[in-house]
Structures are given as structure tokens and as C-alpha cells.
Amino acid sequence: LQVLCRYQHIWNIDLRFRPAFLGGIMQATGNKPPAMLPKRAEYMLKDVKRMAKYYEVPIQISERDFQSVLGTGTLGAMRFITAADMTQPRYLEPLSREFWIRFWSKHEDISQPESILAVAGQAGLPSEVAQKLLEMISSPAVKNRLRETTEEAIKYGAFGMPAAVAHFNGEPHLFFGSDRLELLGSLIGEKWFGPVPS
Fold this sequence. Notes:
The chain has ten helices and two strands; from the N terminus they run αααααααααββα. It is mostly helical. The chain has one domain: Glutaredoxin, CATH 3.40.30.10. The mean pLDDT is 92. A two-stranded antiparallel sheet has the order 1-2. Residues 2-187 form the DSBA-like thioredoxin domain.
């Protein structure tokens, strides 16, 4: 997320955010989280620290985060982002970034209404707009839209997150993982300038 945002004005791309529910993707594909294998979880906790330094992102991960992201702890946030996508799409990037920072960097709650509204305020949403979006998260329209975008991700081959789909030369190309951005650049004929392009 953070590095793609850095490249959106360097590469010739039209970056679009598509909310999808990771728990639904994992369940539909039969995928298991890395943390379910003790040795892999141990490795991943160390590897994320290295990646945070390399990509210059303030991520800090704990075993608790694995459970939260796969359960319903992020569902309200994803529905809120979906409601924004449906009615206020210009806020998708700042909302996505603020939810990311709150969850992955600050280890703060993103499941409760007051937490969601705090994120919305950080992202620059007027309070009346944020309140309206919050009211929409339990609507069938928002639930169905999130289900559709999650199913669309699965259709493209997603089995986990992060996943990016590049539509290039009339074909979709799935890239899984934060370490595939150099390959994405190569596919679309753009130069990789490292994780923090100047």
C-alpha cells in the first residue's frame, strides 16, 4: 500500500483501491495464515521488522495482529472503506492509509465505531460525512459490495493479502506480497527506483 502510493505519480499507472475482506478470501481459497505454523510465524515476525526498515514503513506486528486481521476485527473498517468507495471515492487512499497506520503501526482498535470515526477524522473526512458512512456499514448495499469485491479478488487469483492486480495489455496480472513491486514495474515497462523513490 505505502510503496504503491509512492509510485503512483512516478509510474504510468492509475492506482485504484479495491476493498476486500481477507478473512473471506482465506476461507474461500482454503488458505491458512502463516502464523498457524509456529516456525513460520516466528520467521515472519522477524522478517516484517526487516521489511519495515527496508520499505521505510512504520509497521510493527505481533501474533495478536494475525488473529485480528483474519477475524471480524477488520470487517467494520472494510465496510466503512467500501461505503466510502461507493459514495466518497476521493477518500479511499487517505482512509486506507490511516486504517493501515492505526492497525499496523499504532496497534489501535479499528473495529469500534468511535475508532472508525477517529480514523475518518485523521483522513480528513468531515464529521457529518463520516457519520453517514458509519451508518451505511450495516446496509445490504455495502455488505453486498464488499462481498462482490472480495469475490472479484478471488476470481483474479487472490489467496491472501497484499494482492495487486495489474491490468496490462488487456490481461489481468496478479501480484501477491509486498516484495513483488519490482516485478510489477518490469511487467508494465516501468523502472524500479527502490522502496523510497526520490
